[in-house]
Amino acid sequence: MWKSRAQRLTDSSGAMKKMQKNIRVLYFASDCAEPYVEIITVKDSKRRLSLCDSVESEVDETEFQEVEDDFPVLSHASQLLDDFHLQKIAANLPPRTQGYPWHLVYSTINHGSSLKTLYRNMADLDSPVLLVIRDMHKKVFGAFCSDPFRVSKYCYGTGETFLFSFNPDFQQYRWSGENSYFVSGNWESLQIGGGGAGFALWLDADLYHGASFSCPTFRNAPLSTNEDFIVQDVEVWTVQN
């Protein structure tokens, strides 16, 4: 006896057959045959969706990933660092800082020229800092320090600390392992590196006079145009999540 589609989907009592959630009707081949069904698991369904999404977005992710990795997000516009500076410095930061935004902690333009203010602005920090200096000859240089600057009786920091300069190409000076005179600070000056005839980087209390010499800590060349220099501007950034 011929049965309608609705009749074929009912049981002997006339109640509608309850279709399983993982079965869907693709089509009825004819009026005298059971419908053609396909069993789809939840995993299959998700896999199909994720496959489509990944194919469509794969190119976009590839194109923009490099841009995001090379250029950090800054909390404020830098007056000293352009895109070239940012790209070179960011690429050489320790892995634990990669991908995190940079926050401006101190700048001579915003806070005036005072080492005391610089220390005060970092009093609550517990993250690495990036010191950027521009001298009167427009040369940009500085240091990445594993710890925020503070007044201390002893030297502090780790081997993550390094020096850099743009001359105009990027030059980096990492820890030599010869000594651990990374950073030392008092109310009269800030010093980075040492153990030789002078500091790798030295700034006075007014952040106006500075000096840079070769030293054993980093085996660096002088960072500034002249060993003794006049500071034009200073910025300090912290890299944290």
Automatic annotation (TrEMBL):
InterPro entries given in the database record: TLDc_dom (IPR006571)
Q: Which residue ranges does the record assign to the TLDc domain?
A: 79-240
Q: Pfam families in the record, alphabetically?
A: TLD
> Single GO cellular component annotation?
nucleus
From the record, what ranges are coiled-coil? none
Q: Which domain of life is it from?
A: Eukaryota
Please report the organism this UniProt entry assigns to the protein: Poecilia latipinna
Organism lineage string: Eukaryota, Metazoa, Chordata, Craniata, Vertebrata
One GO biological-process annotation of the entry reads: response to oxidative stress
Q: By its UniProt entry, which PROSITE patterns does this protein fall under? A: TLDC (PS51886)
Q: What is this protein called?
A: TLD domain-containing protein 2-like
